[in-house]
Write a structure and sequence with these properties.
Potential calcium-dependent cell-adhesion protein. May be involved in the establishment and maintenance of specific neuronal connections in the brain. With about 775 residues, the chain is mainly beta. The protein contains eight helices and 54 strands.
């Protein structure tokens, strides 16, 4: 119901006209009063759809509305005398509220009086003392009966039982009340009859009429010549309603010409109203009238008091005292909430109704005129609907993320002097709307992962916040899948939907994937959901999982042969060991060292260059064949290594190298049989090849005169295969750009075409 009131206020739909109905008091529960739907021009279905309801002006609801039929019926029996007393008309006010759009209709139900009360005398026996000298036609004021009904159902006339001395006359006061005067028809004679008794009956005008009876006893007194006389027959006074108890209202005065006890006067308030006896008191000796209790202008504005002055002989007279109660500003305004929306959507537009309320002040005039305002700076305002009806509406757009709850205080102030005011505080809580997208704490998250880490390893945690509440603020994470055909980097990691924890899905190889980026989406659970994106950048840390790879000498050869002249000085370049490492950084920094040699003192290896040079000048005593084992090691933890084997031959002359090697006197120093046999085989094969080439050359020269072009196309001359700088690239490793060789130490290696193991190898440095 609270949410249904969140409607834009349509001031044009408000009506200030008041619909008026009537119902007898004490009507049974469920009694029909009127058909609201018919008067509003709506059907029962429309009333139900627009959630029509009654809002009473007071705290208690005596009427109810049937939304299906539109009938206004009695919800609880109403006693007119209890609700309104003697005030007429007696009205029960309420409002009919309709929604979609919001409309308000004022209505009043008048309680018509039924004759449910009988007139009653306060005293069942009335005693009158009348002197026997009273003349016929003399009038004597009688105690009045009280009937709480109003109109024709109230007291209408008095009658007495049969009496030869008296008859009764019914009089009407200014306020409409009726009282009785007893009129003497014939002179009394105390000696004949000292007391006369008869009954008096008060009858109302109801159908059927009701009545009340009392007994009148007239005591006949001996002669008293003079009756008391008031200085005024009518006293008019005014009293402020805030006058305290015992405040003097007025002083009445009467005189009696008799002497002695017959001239002594006693004042009393005549019993014509129980309310007067409860409100006023009189000093029997001085005639001073005082208040017995404070007056209330809002309850009764005028009092009529009958004052009786009785002398010592029993003679009496009467006067009237009219007391006008003056209003003072003693009632603060009342703020009565008729409809309240305690929860309001933060998306509610301006002029959305939050509450409907009335302001009531029981005072009159300026004291009863009121104004209403809000205290403090808040996004609400008050709109006047009718004379005393207001609506609290939103004045601007709301934002729950800035202020979640408002304490709205409405102050009503009257125009009295001094002014009185009253406040009413409403608590308005805003309901969340999904109007905020999640926000990542970083636009780019950078995380690291070591290569070869097993799947399931935690890399870190993403974090996004959403200021909305409930499901609108609950954030879930997910990877944004790339378009089809693009490397699926999203298959490398996963993101926990609830916590944002990033975990690896499989081991990665630094040499294949050094870094990758994925897009992560954080979406809330609102409807519709809102989302934000961030970039997750994962850097793969290199591990030393690759050993150095030898490029020269080739790792599949048993040993690389090198020729060194015996006249080589110290520092002579023998060979260069070339190796690369697929790892990066420190894991790819290579160092070279001579692990083992036939004569360790003869050679040395450059720590970083891998160049094998003579450590001293070659001598005749050095063995013709030297075998070197070069260790290549990276700087990873733990380090990885590879070895290269070099076979070095010391010769006197490169042209007679093989001959010298075959008959070297020093060859007797424990030559290896297998190597000599292999070398012999190579020499024989070389001679055969040379002879074949010679014969082939003769044939070619002979045939060249016939088909020179064809022979050249079919038999191209052999050309050396040179492995230049770019030919070392293998397995996606760029030697020129990312390898471990310095450009200053690059060499060109030339081998004869088609040879598996070359007898002659020449290294020529490529200088920049």
């Amino acid at each position: 119901r609270g949410v249904a009131l969140i409607l834009v206020l349509c001031l044009s739909g408000m009506r200030a006209e008041t619909a008026r109905y009537s119902v007898p008091e004490e009507a049974e529960r469920g009694s029909f009063v009127a058909n609201i739907a018919k008067d509003l021009g709506l059907t029962g279905e429309e009333l139900l759809a627009r959630q029509a309801r009654l809002v009473p002006e007071g705290e208690k609801q005596y009427l109810e509305l049937n939304q299906h039929t539109g009938d206004l019926v009695v919800r609880e029996q109403m006693d007119r005398e209890e609700l309104c007393g003697q005030n007429e008309p007696c009205l029960v006010s309420f409002e009919v509220l309709l929604e979609s759009p919001l409309q308000s209709f004022r209505a009043e139900v008048r309680l018509t009086d039924i004759n449910d009360n009988s007139p009653a005398f306060l005293n069942k026996e009335i005693v009158l003392k009348i002197p026997e000298s009273a003349m016929p036609g003399t009038r004597f004021l009688l105690e009045s009966a009280y009937d709480p009904d109003v109109g024709n159902n109230s007291l209408q006339h008095y009658s007495i039982s049969s009496s030869e001395y008296f008859h009764v006359y019914t009089q009407q006061r200014n306020d409409g009340g009726r009282y009785a005067e007893l009129v003497l028809d014939r002179a009394l004679d105390r000696e004949q009859q000292a007391e006369v008794a008869f009954s008096i009956t008060a009858v109302d005008g109801g159908t059927p009429p009701r009545s009340g009876t009392a007994l009148i006893r007239v005591v006949v007194l001996d002669i008293n010549d003079n009756i008391p006389v008031f200085t005024q027959t009518l006293y008019k006074v005014s009293v402020m309603e805030n006058s305290s108890q015992d405040t003097i209202v007025t002083v009445v005065s009467a005189s009696d010409l008799d002497a002695g006890t017959n001239g002594e006067i006693v004042y009393s308030i005549f019993q014509n109203s129980e309310e007067n006896l409860q409100t006023f008191k009189i000093n029997s000796e001085t005639g001073q009238i005082r208040l017995k209790k404070p007056l209330d202008f809002e309850e009764k504005k005028t009092y009529e008091i009958d004052v009786q002055a009785t002398d010592g002989g029993g003679l009496s007279t009467h006067c009237k005292v009219e007391v006008q109660v003056k209003d003072v500003n003693d009632n603060a305004p009342e703020v009565i909430i008729t409809s309240l929306t305690s929860t309001l959507s933060e998306a509610a537009p301006p002029n959305t109704v939050v509450a409907l309320f009335n302001v009531r002040d029981r005072d009159s005039g300026d004291n009863g005129r009121t104004t209403c305002e809000l205290t403090g700076e808040q996004p609400f305002r008050i709109t006047l609907l009718t004379a005393d009806s207001y609506a609290l509406v939103t004045a601007e757009t709301l934002d729950r993320e800035q202020v979640e709850e408002y304490s709205v205080t409405m102050r009503a102030r009257d125009e009295g002097s001094p002014a009185l005011s009253a406040s009413k505080t409403l608590l308005v809580r805003l309901l969340d709307v999904n109007d905020n997208a999640p926000t990542f704490t970083q636009a780019i998250y950078t995380m690291a992962l070591s290569e070869n880490e097993p799947a399931g390893r935690t890399l870190g945690c993403l974090s996004a916040t959403d200021p909305d509440a409930g499901e609108n603020g609950r954030v879930r994470y997910a990877l944004v899948l790339p378009p089809i055909g693009i490397l699926a980097a999203a298959s490398f990691v996963s993101v926990d939907a609830e916590s944002g924890t990033v975990r690896s899905l499989r081991p990665l190889d630094y040499e294949k994937v050094r870094a990758f980026e994925v897009t992560v989406r954080a979406a809330d659970c609102g409807s519709p959901p809102l989302s934000a994106q961030a970039v997750l950048r994962v850097m793969v840390r290199d591990e030393n999982d690759n050993a150095p790879v030898l490029l020269h000498p080739a790792p599949d050869s048993s040993a690389a042969g090198e020729l060194v002249p015996r006249w080589a000085p110290s520092g002579y370049l023998v060979a260069k060991v070339v190796a690369v490492d697929a790892d990066a950084g420190q894991n790819a920094w290579l160092s070279y060292e001579l692990a083992k040699a036939t004569e360790p003192a003869l050679f040395r290896v450059g720590l970083h260059s891998g160049e094998v040079r003579t450590a001293r000048a070659v001598t005749e005593r050095d063995a013709a064949r030297q075998r070197l084992l070069v260790l290549v090691r990276d700087r990873g933890q733990p380090p990885r290594s590879a070895t290269a084997t070099l076979a070095v031959a010391l010769v006197d002359d490169f042209s007679n190298a093989f001959h010298q090697l075959g008959h070297d006197p020093a060859s007797g120093q424990q030559p290896q049989v297998a190597e000599e046999e292999l070398l012999t085989t190579y020499l024989i094969a070389s001679l055969c090849c040379v002879s074949s080439l010679f014969l082939l050359s003769i044939l070619v020269l002979t045939a060249s005169t016939l088909c020179k072009a064809r022979v050249r196309a079919e038999l191209p001359p052999p050309s050396p295969s040179c492995y230049a700088d770019g030919d070392f690239a293998s397995d996606r490793v760029g030697v020129g750009s990312t390898g471990t060789l310095s450009p200053a130490y690059r060499y060109e290696m030339c081998l004869t075409s088609g040879s598996g193991r070359s007898e002659f190898q020449f290294l020529r440095p490529i200088l920049p």
